[in-house]
Design goal:
Elements (H helix, E strand, L loop, with lengths): L16 H13 L2 H16 L9 E3 L9 H15 L1 H11 L5 H5 L6 H28 L5 E3 L9 H30 L4 H14 L6 H21 L3 H21 L7
Parallel strand pairs: 1-2
Helix pairs in contact: 1-2, 1-7, 2-8, 3-7, 4-7, 6-9, 6-10, 7-8, 7-10, 8-9
Keywords: Membrane, Transmembrane, Transmembrane helix
InterPro entries: Rce1/LyrA-like_dom (IPR003675)
Protein name: Membrane protein
């Protein structure tokens, strides 16, 4: 009988806590953590400007090449594609454990009816109160005027806005929920600390909108985190987030100039 050779190579037991902590910090530094820092600096700039916060604007989905629609479209598509890369990186890192990351965080097609119906329900439950909170913050002078779209009137504007909404949803829910919550739990964090950290991160990169944007998104972050911890699926929240952003982006593009409250 032939004996198998014996080697002294260590068995891979997975990354240790120090490695995981470094990994989390690096993922956030190249994605939404970085956005949070820039948003904080942006808010400081607004607060120290000569105009009041309520008299300033925060523009999303702006033109990247005014007057050159094909170049503008190219920039828009490149921006959307590269903005999703941190989410793919997070899933790649989660998948190194041997189990597909799509199964770990629930971003797959195993429960399409649940994902769509639950996502639509969450969007409806959050969308109307969120809109009310935004207008209340504006009335109190705690939020800048958010302009969801400043794209020119070209044929590709609506499709790009929809793609931008989906990109935002995938990036944020994969990183803030699927990746971060999974890693913090692996690091032994208690559930309240995990939920609060995820929610504060979500609020931080909306600080450019003012205090109202921070508070509203932090509250949304708590609800999303609790939902994810209960069902262990990111997919319904990607659907919900996509619907919310599509409603904001496309709705603004279609209604601006036709209603007095925009």
């Amino acid at each position: 009988m032939t004996k198998l050779p014996v080697t002294d190579e260590p068995v891979d037991a997975g990354p240790d806590r120090r490695t995981l902590r470094a990994e989390v910090l690096l993922v956030l530094a190249v994605s939404l953590g970085q956005s949070g820092v820039y948003a904080l600096v942006n808010l400081i700039g607004k607060l120290t400007a000569s105009k009041a916060l309520a008299d300033q604007s925060a523009t999303l989905n702006a033109s990247q090449a005014p007057g050159r629609p094909w170049l503008d479209l190219t920039y828009q598509l490149l921006g959307i594609a590269f903005a999703v890369v941190p989410a793919l990186l997070a899933m790649h890192l989660l998948g190194r454990s041997g189990r597909p990351a799509s199964r770990t965080i629930g971003l797959d097609l195993r429960r399409p009816v649940f994902d769509l119906t639950a996502g639509a329900g969450v969007a409806l439950a959050i969308g109307i109160p969120g809109l009310g909170l935004y207008f209340a913050a504006r009335a109190l002078g705690l939020a800048a005027n958010v302009v969801p779209s400043a794209l020119p009137s070209v044929w590709w504007a609506i499709p790009v806005l929809i793609l931008s909404a989906i990109q935002n949803a995938v990036l944020e829910e994969v990183v803030v929920l699927g990746y971060l919550i999974t890693r913090l739990r692996e690091l032994g964090w208690r559930l309240p600390a995990v939920v609060v950290t995820s929610a504060l991160l979500r609020g931080s990169y909306h600080l450019y909108q003012g205090f109202g944007g921070f508070v509203g998104n932090a509250i949304m972050g708590v609800l999303f985190a609790l939902f994810f911890l209960r069902v262990r699926r990111v997919a319904p929240l990607v659907v919900a987030h996509s619907l919310l952003d599509i409603g904001a982006f496309v709705g603004y593009a279609l209604l601006h100039g036709h209603v007095s409250w925009l």
